[in-house]
Every structure is written in C-alpha cells, then in structure tokens.
Amino acid sequence: MATVRARHWLRGGDAVLAAGAVMVAVQLVWKFELVRRTYFRQDDFMFIARGLESQLSWDYLMRIDFGHLMPGAFAIHWVMGRLGVYNDVLAHGLTIGLQAAAGLALLRLLRLLFGPRPAILVPLGFFLLTPMTIPGLSWWAVVAETLPFQIALPMALCSHVLFTRTGRMRHAVAAAGWTAFGMVFFVKAPFIPVLAFVLTVGWLGGRRLWRAWLLYLGVLVPYAVVFFRQLFTSVQLTNDTFHAELPAAGVAVKAAWTLLTGSLVPTSLGGPWRWQSIGEDYALAATPPVLGWASVAVAAVAVTVSVMWRRRAWLAWLTLLGYFLLADVAPIMLGRVETLGPDLSGFELRYVSSTAVVVALAIGLAFIPVQGEEQPWRRPSTRLRWAWAPVAAAFAAGSVWSVAAYADRPLGANVRSYVRTAEAALARVPAGSVVLDTHVPPKVAFAAFFYDYARHSRVLGPTAPHGISWTSRLAGPVADPLIFDRQGRLSPVRIDGITIPAGAACTPVGRDEVRFRLPTALGYGEHTVQISYLNGAETTLNVRLGLAQTAVPAGENLGRTFAPITGAGAELAIRAIGPASCVGEIRIGAPVPAEDAAPVPPQPVR
Question: Can you tell which superkingdom this protein's organism belongs to (predicted)?
Fold first, then answer.
C-alpha cells in the first residue's frame, strides 16, 4: 500500500513540487547570509528622507526619479521611515520574504507551463543560483523595485496560461491585475503582456484571445499616459526636468555589447567570477576577458544545440534578446550611458537583475516541451537527456564562487556603524545643540549625486530623539557648535587653517579698519573666520578679505563670533559698526572636528 502511494505521489508531481520548494528554502538560507550583512546605501537615504518629509500624496508617489516610476516602492519607503527610520531588520525580512515569493511564483509558472516533470528544476535552479541578482539584493532601493516585479511577471503569465487553457475571464483579469501590480513598482512591467503575447503565439496555440488583449491594453494605455506625463514634468534633484538625450552610436553599441557579454551572458553561466568594488558596500561585474569570451562561446553552443533539437527554441532566445534590448538596454540609453559611460553602465548588474526570471523562462522554453505541445523535437530528445548535467554543475560551482567573492567585502558594516554612531551622538547631546550641517561621507551618500539629501540634517536629523539646531554655515556668535567626524561622532568645531594669535592685550577695533597681515595669502574660496573678542556692549563687526566682505554680530563681554566669507587675499580687515570691540585670536580656515576634545560617543558603535 505504501509503495502504491509513493508511486502515485511521484506520478502526481508532488515530489517535483516538494523538491522545488526545498530548493527555494535552501537558497533563502544561503542568500540570507549575504542580505543580513547589508545596510541602506546611497539612494536609500534620499528615498527614506523624502518619504519622511512628504505626505502620502499623488505628487509624492508619482514623481519619476531619473526615469523610474515606482509609486509602490515610494510607498514602502514612506512606511519604512515611520517604522524606525533605518530599520534594516525590517528591510532584510522584506527582502527574504519577497525573494521567497519570487522563487515560488517562478516554480508555479514552470510547473504550469511544462508540467510536473523534474526538468523544470533546472531553470528554477538557475534563477535561485545566478549571481545576476546578487548586487540587487544588497541594495534596498533595487530590492523594493525589482523583487515585486519578479513576483508579478511569473504570476501574470500563470494567469494568462490558465486563461488560454480554460477561457475563463477571471484568469485574464488576474493577469491584468498582476501586470498592474508590477507596474506600481517597476518600469519594465509593461513588457509582461508582450511576453504573454509571444508565449501565446509560439507555444499556447495562438487562439483568439481578443478579450484578454483588450483588457491588457486597458492597463497599458493609462500607465503609458501617466508615465510620459510624469517623465517630462517631474523635477529631479538637479532642479530640472527630464530631457531625452541619446548617446552617440558608438557609445550606445559599446554599452549594449558590454552589458550583454560582460554582464548578462557571464552571469547566466555562473559569472562574473570577479568584481570591481564601488565603495565598500557594492560592486560591479568585472568579468575577466578570457572568461567573458568563453561564456559567449558556451552560450552560442547552447543556443545552437537547442535550435537544432527543439522546435521554436529560436523564438525563446529571440524573445530573450528582444526583452534585453527593449527593457534593459533602451532605458539606460536615455541619459545614463552618457553620465556613467559605457563601461560603468555595461558592468552594472542591477540593470539586468530582474531579467533573471526571463532567462529562466527562456531556458525552459528552449529545452523543455510545453505541456500538450505536439512534435516538440526535431531530433530524438534522448540524446540530450544528460547533456545539461556538466553545464549545470559548472554553473552551480561558478555561482557559489562568484557570490562568495561578492560577499568578501565589508558590505554594509561601515555605513551601519557610521549611522548607528551618529544616532547615538544625536541622542546624547543636549536638545537644541547647534550642529554644523555638513555632507555625510561618500560611503553613505555621494553629495555630487544627492545634493542636500546628502546632508546630515536630511540623512540623520530624523533619527534625533529631540530638537537639534542645524546650521549650514557658522555665522555670528554661535555657542559651542558641533560637527560630525569621519566615524559619525560629534565633536566641538575647530577652525583649521591660519591663526593670527592674540598679543599681550586684545586689539581695539573701531569705525576705522584694522588690518591683520596673514602669515600666508589665502586662495579664492569659502573661508570661515573665527574672531575672539572682549566687548563692553553688543556690536557688529565688518570683516573684509580682499574685495569680499561680510558683517556679523558680536555679543557683550568675552566671546567669539564666526564670519563666513568667500574671497582671497593676504590680509584681513575688521572694523566695528556701532560700539567698539577688542579683538583677540583670529582663525581663518575650514570647520573641522577638534582632535583635542572628547567626542560623543567616545567610541564608534560597531
């Protein structure tokens, strides 16, 4: 009796389904070891800060950020900011949950298309192992965009396949719903109906499904209207709107070729085997040229063999190539290639990370007969029964090697330490403390890309448990200003540069200028002047450096005032506007953390 049940279980495909579920679970454990070491980076801080300062409105959700329409991701960032600001535990949990859902959704599609045969575990294994998705998993902003799409694509195709087989309209509605869900998160989702069309024409019989196509069109058209309206009206961080700029033909071809042969093809075979670090927490593919060409050769052989043996295998590979050109290459041609260059953009795996689902589907269609397909083979398939085994073994070994090589870097450890240290510092200093609002280190967010969203007040201000007085520059008699050091601690400000020491007594300054010769001439730039004084009454000091001058208040009794000035010169001139002043030590330079003062906290948080 037990033997009969076991045979029924195997024939019913439950064993294949169980094996696929186990594969999904194992890869989650494997990838969690990488994900748990990551932290927020670059765009993540801007998106969360923007969410915290915005209402959950149409303008907030529908703003296109450099070509990306992602109201769903913006909604997640909005909620994330209100659940602990930088809650990496929540982010990690969502990442693993979405990854699990994506794997199970692909398993469902493969089982529905090809039946419960063991062969479907090969394309599933590809998706679960490929390093193509690894850099995207280490970047929260990419996760929030691409993983919902990797769930929506197979789920939409599942519903479409069910509609073609049953004719029930509810399945077409579900397909349209999953497509709309994908569109809420990722701009590549409009290609889902295109894939459904190719799948229908090539493998599902090409029946008249006009009701479904009208429904899908009813989803695509409004999306296109909203997308293009927002694309040309959304104000970017540059305070400008989008302008379509195509690169030169040579640059475009090189970028597309590099993305294909340096990123997509090698990672489809277990590469890139080597990485080029971008900071401490991210890396680009750095496929060795020899292995890159070897990958192209292996891919060409695989395509040739599949076309020789399998009917319509050519259509599977043509679909993958078309999707790559339209969904992966075309978007980066509109501005990003000119900005980043063909090499940098060509080895950026996040541009192709979501394509892993399409590659897995193409592998299945090229080598496995679709359920109910008549005459799927040109030649007897028995000759290819185990031909995939050595390729799969080499792919698995290469993937494990590549992922381990990617993980061999600090990932989010140093950025997490900086943010946690800064959070502790803001919590320990008194409420109302004056903090100089400098830019965070480049390892946290590049100021050249994110402008004011890379300032401490935007990145770390929301984490402060009480009010902090942020100032972008020191001006006037600021009491005990603080500044962040390179480790995220708060220290008193020291003006680093030229010092004009006080004499035996302070220097009286009245309505006439008193000139102080500088030890060395200052080049043109923005300088901060710190003036110590002893005043009998409040006054105003006019400070001049070359042709540039500014006026700042100075208080009563002993104190110091700061004067920001942009200029150049070999002497500093000061005069009093109002009651006379008596000037002591003068420092001219840039505000830096005082090395001889105790920082808060004493040690960075590790």
Answer: Bacteria
Task: Check residue 35 and give its pLDDT.
Answer: 94
| CA-to-CA separations, 133 to 262, 352, 356, 480, in angstroms, rounded | 15, 8, 7, 48
CA contacts within 13 A on the Cβ side of 516: 27
* Cα Rg, the chain, nearest whole Å: 31
Burial of 144 (0-12, 13-18, 19+ CB in 10 A): buried
Q: What pLDDT, on a 0 to 100 scale, did the predictor assign at position 6?
A: 45
* Cα–Cα distance for residue pair 96/101, rounded to 1 Å: 9
CA dist 398 to 266, 358, 405, 417, Å?
Answer: 10, 20, 10, 32
Q: Domains plus CATH for the chain? A: 1-408 (no CATH), 415-593 (2.60.120)
Q: Are 468 and 432 in contact (CB under 8 A)?
A: yes
Convert 184-203 to b/e letters by CB count within 10 Å (16 or more is b). bbbbbbbbbbbbbbbbbebb
Identify the sign of the CA torsion 114, 120, 124, 130: negative
Bridge partners, 539 (sequence order): 554
Q: Under DSSP, is residue 554 helix (H, G, I), strand (E, B) or coil?
A: strand
Terminus-to-terminus CA distance in the chain, angstroms?
59
Instruction: State the amino acid at position 154 in one-letter form.
Output: P
Q: Is the CB of residue 578 less than 8 Å from the CB of residue 493?
A: no
The two tokens of residue 282 are 């991210």
- 3-state percent breakdown (helix, strand, coil) of the chain, nearest 5: 55, 20, 30
Phi-psi region of 111 (alpha: psi -120 to 50; beta: other; left: phi over 0): alpha
Tokens representing residue 405 in the block: 């090589």
Within 10 Å of residue 217's Cβ, how many Cβ atoms? 12
Q: Are 534 and 558 in contact (CB under 8 A)?
A: yes
Q: What is the largest CA-CA distance in the chain?
A: 110
Q: Name which of 435, 477, 464 is nearest 591 in CA terms.
A: 435
- Express each pLDDT in 493-521 by its tens digit: 999 999 999 878 889 999 999 999 999 99
What beta strand segments (E) does 351-473 contain?
Answer: 434-436, 469-471
270-282: buried (b, 16+ CB within 10 Å) or exposed (e) per residue? Answer: bbbbbbeeebebb
The answer to whether the beta carbons of residues 13 and 371 sit under 8 Å apart is no
The C-alpha atoms of residue 276 and residue 282 are separated, in whole angstroms, by 9
Phi, psi values for residue 192, rounded to 5°: -60, -50
b/e map of 236-253 (b: 16 or more CB within 10 Å)? Answer: eeeeeebeeeebeeebbe
Check if the beta carbon of residue 411 is closer than 8 Å to that of residue 277.
Answer: no
Q: How far apart are CA 269 and CA 266, in angstroms?
A: 5
pLDDT, tens digit, 9 for 90 and up, residues 55-80: 999 999 998 887 788 999 999 999 99
CA-based nearest residue to 287, from 257, 260, 266, 259? 266
| pLDDT of amino acid 210 | 84
- What are the DSSP calls for 364-391, one per residue? HHHHSPPTT-SS-BSS-GGGGTTTHHHH
Torsion of Cα atoms, 584 then 588 then 591 then 592, to 10°: -90
Give burial (CB, 10 Å; 0-12/13-18/19+) of 555.
middle
Residues of the chain scoring pLDDT < 70: 1-13, 206-207, 238-239, 242-244, 335-336, 338-339, 342, 381-385, 387
